Amino acid sequence: MPSRKDLPCAVCGAAFGPVESDLPDQPYGANIFISTGHYGATAFDSPGGDRLELLICTPCMKAMAQRHAIHRILDATEQIPEQTLIWGSEEEQAVSDTPMNALRLANTYRLEAAEEMPGMTVEKFSALFQACMTASVHGKEFHLNEPET
Hints:
Elements: E1 30-35, E2 52-57, H1 58-66, E3 71-74, E4 83-86, H2 90-96, H3 99-114, H4 122-137
Antiparallel strand pairs: 1-2, 3-4
Helix pairs in contact: 3-4
């Protein structure tokens, strides 16, 4: 059975290897997209339980961003509502720079740094992810080495 890392880019067909990580099936240089379909879809609309996965490589995503073909959804927090923006647009850049979004992005960056820590496990990372999201919702900075108060 093929794994995610064996799938080519859905746009250009390029192949790529896995990320050097303990996580299985993580392609290097691509994003995984998942769809369960939706009412009105003519190619795929799951009655439930299954989904489609596809990969799009970084160069193709950058080309899509230039065509304004990707929406970026900023999840709601207690400070800001959910926002749907064109990824890479001037509007998205401006909203990304608001203090609350800057804090959320900074927290996510700190979380990404945790993935590289020696001895990191899926369980530890899940706990860190939950702590990072909690800090963001409460308008706080997430720190890897300090317990949340």
